[in-house]
Amino acid sequence: MRRFILLVALTLAFPVSALAQSAPGAVPPLQAPGSAVTGGAEGTLSFARFGEDYFLNLTLGTAFSVGKFSFGIQAPLKIRVIDKDPEDDKWYREEDWDSFSDWTRIMRFFQYGSPKDPFYLRLGELVSASIGHGTIVGRYYNSLDIDNYYTGLWTAVNLEQGGVELMTNNILQWNLTAVRGYVRPFSFFETAHPMLKTVAVGTTFAADFLAPSRSASQALIDASELETEVSASFWGIDAEIEVLRNEMLGITPYTDLNVFGGNGVGWHLGVLNELSALKSTFQLRLEYRLLSARYGPSYFNTLYDVERVTFLPLPQFSESSPNPAVPKYWYYKEATGLKLRHGFYGELFANLGGLFGLGGIYEDYQGPDNANVTLRVDLPVIASLKASAYYMRRNFDGFSELFELDNAWLIAELRYQFMGPIYAYGVFSRYWREITDEDGFTAYDATDSYQFGIGASFTF
Questions:
Q1: Which residue has the higher pLDDT, 434 or 230?
Q2: Considering the entire predicted model, what is its pTM?
Q3: What beta strand segments (E) does 90-136 contain?
């Protein structure tokens, strides 16, 4: 608990950026895009390393916004200039364009409205997509793997009496799909108290219908006894009430009860606080979680596309034995020694005057490898210099492991505006590459990448 309070205090001590979204940037946002998408165009040319090879990386992108409609397009091309072993006979990075879904990356996104509007639709790149209170599907990104691009769908209908939310990571396959319906029962009664009319009760179903059950390095498990793909499914019920809502402050307590099919159960009790003042906005969520042994909170999260294949080693393996990380579903299904546990989840987003901000998420539970952290810093322009960074670390044990880069996602970007719209920039990132064994099973391996070059950005 002291660690949780400390990280929240650290988050408060820093200035998250406005959610304006124009041409593609290196550092991803923590929150889902709102309705205000800034129109603009951007082009960059950089020298970059991806994997073992070096490339000239040319990216052109633009975004347009008309009322609640907005869309973004991009044209990325990586030209190989230094070919290290193993050599490749292609002059471009083939992994970017070797499947039909990769070609859909040209349309980066199409969007109408924002997630809380009466109607919302986003097609393409999914950014921090959540269903309901995010206790099953929370802050999911479908663009984590740089070698594979997926066109996702996220849509919602929000009416006074109720609504529905739908999300899929890939409209060409629909393997990860979530749907939630909710109703405000007291809104049908004109004489009901205004606060009662805000009571909402919902139910959620979410599943990865093609969840892998073993990975490339899973040598200790008899593969003949495993299905290669299974269905990882969740059912949940939830309720919320707005106890306060005005121009400055909103307070919404909520509770969720979720069942991980064939595995475990989780209970979530939280409160969402929103504050707007002096052209600044703050969002603080605090949540208590009680989790059975085989239940994973926010199972479909930011790093799910990696965790579904490479999650944690089974704890029953001794340290002297090979101890490969197994797929997420298999871990919760087969790990021994897991216990009932409880802990806290907290997140804070602050946008100060639309100039700079910071977002932070921290969760910690009883037992080893049960802490997760996400941080995003977006500093204002100071002497033509602008810096931003995104950091995520999952499944670590205590503050001593907070900034170890193993199994971490890190992107740091520095820009220097030196002549009108023209800038120089550098980006360091740690990302995952998919590897495949001789039997066709996949795993993910973390690798470092960097690029530096020049770009030009225009806003209109």
A1: 230
A2: 0.84
A3: 107-112, 119-124
